[in-house]
Every structure is written in C-alpha cells, then in structure tokens.
From TrEMBL, chains A, B:
Names of required cofactors: Zn(2+)
Reaction equation(s) it catalyzes: L-histidinol + 2 NAD(+) + H2O = L-histidine + 2 NADH + 3 H(+)
PROSITE patterns noted in UniProt: HISOL_DEHYDROGENASE
Protein name: Histidinol dehydrogenase
EC number of this enzyme: 1.1.1.23
Binding site for Zn(2+): 253, 256, 355, 414
Residue positions binding substrate: 231, 253, 256, 322, 355, 409, 414
Species this protein is from: Dethiobacter alkaliphilus AHT 1
Length: 432, 432
C-alpha cells in the first residue's frame, strides 16, 4: 500500500506544500477576518450558518448544556479523561519557569520576569468529530501557566450542540467558557473580540487549513502557537520491529485524513515486505479504511535505507511531528535526533499513548516546523521581561564606555541620557 | 513639545497601526520574496542595486574587509564592544535550559529535549547607520544556544562596504559569515537560501517595515523572532523624578526615527511642567534634533494621572517595549507590571544601559506584542521535543483507558495500535 523508496530518491522526491500555495483560501480567510472585525457576533453567526449549516441564537455554551453533557457521557471514559488530565497537569507543571533577579556586588541587578498572558483562546476541531483530548492539551497548559481567562472555541454539530465529551473535557481542564464557532470566523472572534467572545492575547490549538491560515493572518497582532498542517508520523524500524505494530501505528496516523502522512524508514527489507502485507490486512478491518488507504497511497512512504544513521538523517530533514523509534537500541538513536515534535521510544509506546494519555502535549509542529518550533507547552502562555537596575556607582563606572558605543551608532541622545547622569553624579561627587 | 493627556483621554485616543495597514508594501514584499526564491543571488544583487544604490560583485564580506575593519575602528570602542559582549554572554547563559528525562517507578519515562536550531540568520540594519550593538544582541544568544551556523545580513553603505564597527562586532560575537544585503531581499535570501546565502531555520533581528513584513510572510516556513515596529519608551515618573533625566530618556527614544514613540506617564503636574521645558532645552542641543522633535510632537505623549496604579494600568495596556520606572519605590511598582519588553528600574538606569551594555537583550516586542511575546533570548534559538517511553507493563496498565478515549474520538485505528500490543502481551502473559 505504501510507495517504496530508497533513502536518496525519497529525499529528492519529498516536498512540502507551503502556505502560499493557497491564494484563494487565504483571500477567503482575509474577507472573513475583516467581516468579523467589523460586525462581531453577527458575522460569526452568519458564517456558522453558512459553513456549519447551523442556525444559532447565541455562541456561548450554557450551564444547562454542560449539565446535559455530564449526563450523556460514559462514566468510565469520563474517569479516563480525569486521569489523563492529571497526567497532562503533572507533566506541564515541570515546564513552569521561575522569574529570577540577581543583585550583584557592583550595584547592578539583572533579572528575567516570567509572567502569564492575561487571556488565551484554544481552538478545538469539532463538527462531525470530537476531540476531548485536544481540549485537555490546550486548556491545561494555559491553566498551569497561570492565564487568568482561558476560553475554548469549537464548531457545533449539525444540531447546534457541542459533543458532550468536548464539554466535559472543558470542565475537567478548567476552561472558563466554550463558544460554538469554528473555522476562520472563530479565530477572528478571538483575535478581535466580539460582543460575546473575548479578545485574547494568545490563540492556540490545531485546526483545518482555514483555521491555520487565519492564525497566520492575525499572528503578530495576537500571539499564536504554531501553523499546524496535516498530521505526520515517521516510524524508524529495524529488524527487531514487529510489522503488525508498525502497520497499526501508520494506520492510526493515516485514518486522520487523506492528507495525513505516514512514513516508515527501515533498515530491514524483510520488515518492509511484511509491513505491506500487514497494512493491507489491518486496513480492511478499520472503520475509516477508505480514508486510511488513500492517505497511505497518496502521502505515505516506505523508505528502505542502508543504515540507521541514514534513517536519522532523513528524520532530521523531515522534522516529523511524531517520531517512533522501534529499534533494538532506541535510546542510542534518540541522541542523534535533532528535529522532531515528539519522540515515542520503543515498541510499546505507540503514538496514541502520547495523543491521549502520557502527559506530554499532542499539539506538535508539523510540515518541518520542528526544525525551529516546539511542542505546545507552558512556555506558549508566558512571556519574559528583562529587568535592569544600575546604582549611581554602577552607572558611573560604565558611563563613558556606554557613551562611546552610542557615539559610533550616531545616536547622540542615547549618549546624552547617560552623560547627563554622569555629570550630575560627578558634580555631586557621589562617584568618589 | 509633548501633547498632554489625562489617563482616560490617552487610553481612548491611543491606537496602533496594524500590519494590515500596509497593503502596497505587503504586495511589494511578496514580489521580492518570489523573485529571490526563483532567481537567488541574481535577484538579491538586483534589489541591492535598486534599493541600496550599490553595485556588488558578491554578497559575502571577505576576510580582507574584516581585517580592514579591525584597522579602522577606535580601539577603546572596540574594547567596550568586547566588554559588552561579555555582559551579554553572561546574561544569556543564565537562560540556557537543560533537557530532562525522568524514569518513573511504573515503567514510564517522560522527558523534554532542548536542542538548538541548526542554522540562524540575524538581520542588522545598516546603510547610513551602524548598529554593532544589534550584532552582539542577535548573534550571541544564538551562539550561547549552540546554533551550528550563525550568519548576519546587513545592507551595505553607499560605497558597497559595511560599517567597520558592524564587522568587528560580528567577529566579537562569533558570526560565521556576513552578507551585504538588506530589506525584504535579505529576509528572502535567508528564508529560501541562494547560491551564496544559506537557508536558515530561524531569522531574528529588527528591521524597517519591509523587513518586518517579509519576516511575517516567511513565518511558518522558517521561524522568526517577532514582528518589530517602531521603538517605544514609556517612563513612569513621580515627584521624585528629575525632569532633566526623564527628558533625556524620551529624547533618546525620539531620535531613532519620526515614528518612534516616547511616553511619560506621571503623577506629578510639577514634573510635567518642567519636563516640557527640559525637552525644548535639550532637544536644541541634539544632532538629530529635527527627527526627535517631530517624533515627540507626532507620536509622543505626556500623560498626567491621579495615581501610580492608574499609571501601571496604562503600562499594562500598552505593553511598552521599554519601561522606565523613575519612582521613589520602583521595585514595588515592578510587581504590578504585567506587560513590558524590558524594565529599567530607578533613576540611574536609562534605556541606553540596556541598549548597549548591561547584558539583557535589546531586541524587544513592540506595538503591544509584549502582551504575548518575549524579549529575544536563548529560547528563540532552541526547540523542545517531548520524549515518551512506556514499558510493556506500563502500556498494559493503561491500554484499555487509552482505547476508550480513542473510541469516543471515533479513531478506531488509534485504539487498534494500543489493542494489538495489549492482546500480544496478554497472550504472552507478560502482563502478569
């Protein structure tokens, strides 16, 4: 089912779609942003009617709806969400960074303050599907970071309601409010604010192409986490790997959507052979078989390489969102991994362990962004501010050097701001 | 010289230009990006001829040019650059974060790897002016982070050469190469790579509107630090502040360019009165007096407020790039500051101390971005990757809960990836 390559041909043929490849979608998104910016709720409700086919009275999910959701969900699954939330909270608490300030003996104090953004908005896909796990993964890090107001936007189902698991997860994660809107109009509502939806400082969470393009457009005016493309997994496997495990993992990626990319890079021709058979066998048993098959055939690749080092070079070039190391010595390979969103080590750590359960975030950089950006974390919800203090003596000691540096940059007023203090202190004699 | 407001009217009248207010410039930038992407060096050289009025043979600065620069600079100023570099290195070393991995008793190991980006490019303004301090501020954090290749782009002077202080600073900071190009074409060269300029993973550094729009366009394909607008300072001053100090600091911001914004927010009507006089007096003595005056009159503001708390509310709404606290109790006020790029504490810490000398970075979020983004730091040159390991026993323990969560999201293959391992282990009986 997978197209087969050797390492060289795969690296030559491999290309990624850039966001500039979608001019029409980008223009459509710009129009939506402008409308919502001007007309607020009215525009959001119109687009919800148009794109989600739902006529809403209000965007805000009511307490009655939350209560009904609690009734509707399977208690066992709810308990699993509670445990997953605890794992996610535990892991993200380890990411909290402290402010620091150091008073030096020379009268200088330098430091770095870490403060949370005031308001954050999480986008969670919805409509047909339900992603309570994404609710936990986006809201909990914001809460751990200390964000004052954390809201959720997610598109409504055909009947105008939100999936009960999504609402229950929102309560478990501690979201302050959930709004029934999706697509570019939801991003616009969070970026500009409407009568109902608060203007936030940071927008996070994965979405479809329109959501991603909208985040890109508002980025800079408001903070965004990353530009998420279709999901990817790359499994590096050697002769020790089980074909049935690898096949199951590739399929779990491929079922997301036809654009999802599933790669296996292996040093074992034998495994490659068995893998193709296993993919056929297991795919036939899947509910979303057609999606998975098309995804594998169109986007997937089976790459047979000469060495593990070659495999890891490919990994670092692709910077896969998800990387599985199904190897006899996975920890040694990990040391050579430079670019990846999340790494799943060993045969008993399939990607869903991270998607749902373990605690690390499942919102990850895609389409090669792992070369320069990070998994969603508490860092996304804080900002750092430098703190500088100079005593009169400390300023006197460095004043003329600073004045000299200002001079070569031709900024006399910069020098003057230091000089006026130096001369005042020299007169006062407090420099002695 | 400054327009005067009370707190309420200032907050009402204050607005910021968004990047969408520049459609022509944005289109021009898109064209430049496309040309450089297609034609590489040839296009960059053409734009350098067109915009910088310079005919270049090659973009790369030669060793001979570096040697000549060493001859040309004032040795005392060079020594000051060396000392400033040491201060910057010391401060940024405190930002280095370690990878961590924790093996738990239950057979689970979770961690976070911190790895440097492979290649980074720093943009430093040039042409008429020279900013060796910006060279230090952009290159050193990348070096401290462990970036393998760090290059610099800066527009050439009329004669085709680069200011000697810029080149000397590049050597002191440890840049691997300097390229003679600026504007959107330089950003394009770093984003796409050319025959001469390497494609980088991260582009940092301040620039003019075209540079900023270009960074915005390539963001996502390559990492960028932030979208920098005109420089800003906000001085919060009470009756204890000296008008001559405050005036000097506002002027040091205003001399940058006519778009630079200088605000003083004070609880003292007396200070406000003296400040206007001091601004007139000191401005007359400046080389860049005309720029500073126009900047103060067009962009500046003197805001008289009833209380320090009101002043700090204004600070948090504006999120100024530079915040000076010229107060009798500046440390207490600092505790109420939520949004600012860098804070300069007390009367003897004028902004130039941070611009040139103290060690914290001078590349800071502007135009309100301090609400969600941070001062440039080592963080900008690293990315974080999650690491997840589950033992067979650990997977067995959680398998059915994970399968349940996958089920409610309608992703059967996700559940299957766990189930196939659980059933294998149950058969093998290694779960007992």
């Amino acid at each position: 089912m997978l197209r087969e390559f050797d390492g060289r041909t795969f690296r030559e043929t491999f290309t990624r779609a850039g966001f500039d490849d979608y001019p029409e979608a980008t223009q459509a998104v710009r129009d939506i942003l402008a409308e919502v910016n001007q007309r607020g709720d009215e525009a959001v409700l119109e687009y919800t009617r148009k794109f989600d086919g739902v006529e809403l009275e209000t965007l805000l999910v009511s307490e009655e709806e939350f209560a009904a959701a609690e009734e509707a969900v399977d208690p066992e699954v709810r308990q699993s969400l509670v445990e997953a939330a605890e794992n996610i909270r535990d892991f993200h608490r380890r990411q909290v960074q402290n402010s620091w300030l150091e008073h030096q003996a020379d009268g200088v104090a330098l430091g770095q303050r870490v403060t949370a953004v005031e308001k954050a908005g999480a986008y969670v896909p919805g409509g047909g599907a339900a992603y309570p796990s994404s609710v936990l993964m986006t809201v909990i890090p914001a809460r751990v970071a200390g964000v004052e107001k954390v809201v959720l936007v997610t598109p409504p189902q055909a009947g105008g309601e939100i999936n009960p698991y999504t609402l229950v997860a929102a309560k478990i994660a501690g979201a302050d409010a959930v709004y029934k809107c999706g697509g570019a109009q939801a991003v616009a509502a969070l970026a500009y604010g409407t009568e109902t939806v608060p203007k936030v400082d940071k927008i996070v969470g994965p979405g479809n192409l329109y959501v991603t393009l909208a985040k890109r457009e508002v980025s800079g005016m408001v903070g965004i986490d990353m530009l998420a493309g279709p999901s990817e997994v790359l499994v590096v496997a050697d002769a020790s790997a089980r074909a049935d495990f690898v096949a199951a993992d590739l399929l779990s990626q491929a079922e997301h959507d036809v654009m999802a990319a599933s790669y296996c890079v292996t040093t074992s021709a034998r495994l490659a052979l068995d893998l193709q058979k296993e993919l056929k066998r297991q795919c036939a048993q899947l509910e979303r078989c057609d999606v998975a098959r098309e995804s594998l055939q169109q986007q997937g690749a089976l790459v047979i390489v000469d060495s593990l080092d070659e495999a890891l070079e490919i990994v670092n070039e692709l910077a896969p969102e998800h990387l599985e190391l199904q190897l006899s010595e996975p920890w040694e390979a990990l040391g050579k991994v430079k670019n990846a969103g999340a790494v799943f080590v060993g045969p008993y750590t399939p990607e869903p362990v991270g998607d749902y359960w373990a605690g690390p975030n499942h919102v990850l950089p895609t389409a090669g962004a792992g070369r320069f950006s990070s998994v969603l974390s508490v860092d996304d919800f804080v900002k750092k501010t430098s703190v500088i203090y100079y005593s009169p003596q400390a300023l006197l000691k460095s004043a003329q050097k600073i004045e000299g540096l200002a001079r070569v940059e031709g900024l006399t007023a910069h020098g003057q701001a230091v000089k006026i203090r130096r001369e005042y202190l020299e007169e006062k004699g407090s420099g002695n």
